[in-house]
Amino acid sequence: MNLQFPYGFSPNGWTAQTDLATHVADMIEQLLLTSAGERVNRPTFGTGTAQLVFAGLNDSLAAAQQQLIQASLQQWLSDLVKVQAVTVTVQESTLNIVVQYTILQTQRQQTQQVSFGVTA
Question: Which pTM value belongs to this model?
């Protein structure tokens, strides 16, 4: 079952569902937005990327975060996706993340981009 994120109800009162591609994209976003220790019974879930908004962004921090995101995606979503590439770049006060992956069930390649920080 592919639950809608954020959780909601369908017009008939059931739990809202979505297609597989949207569900996987939502799960990647949740992984990026969650910090370790936030999930009950999943203390290592997350990447802590959202907290970097308050850190001094530089290329070495981006490289370290790229490795952490890659490892987290493999740990938590390897049954759904095969990660092709993770790119993390810093532009002024914005951290840009691009995740390229293949959904295993459909073999469709997807790209997801997430930005953290101040965007103009």
Answer: 0.80
